[in-house]
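Lecture 7 notes: from sequence to structure.

We start with a single chain of 107 residues. Read the sequence below before looking at the structure.
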Amino acid sequence: MSITQPPLQLTREHQQLVQGILDQVLPGIAVLVFGSRATGRARRYSDLDLVLLGNAPLPLAVMADLREAFDQSDLPFPVDVVEWCRLSPDMQAVIARDGAPLPPLSP
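Now the structure, written as tokens:
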């Protein structure tokens, strides 16, 4: 990951929705944002690319529940979720370089 990260261009409300879904379906999972929102090139309705960090694949039913929760949410943009352990080494290198942690919600 780079030393200085651009803002992810997420409103507090949208960040709360994303974090709430993650906490409900996969509590405690480590997540990185990648793609245009992590590199500062996102537009207002650019998708949100998330990678779930872990060494073992998640059950398909859990991934389906997560994708459905994002699809049914009030987020005005699509959310794409991938698993780190299923990515190619080249893609992992790009995300390791450019990815950004989903920042914690401040009170």
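The mean pLDDT is 91. Keep this in mind for problem set 3.
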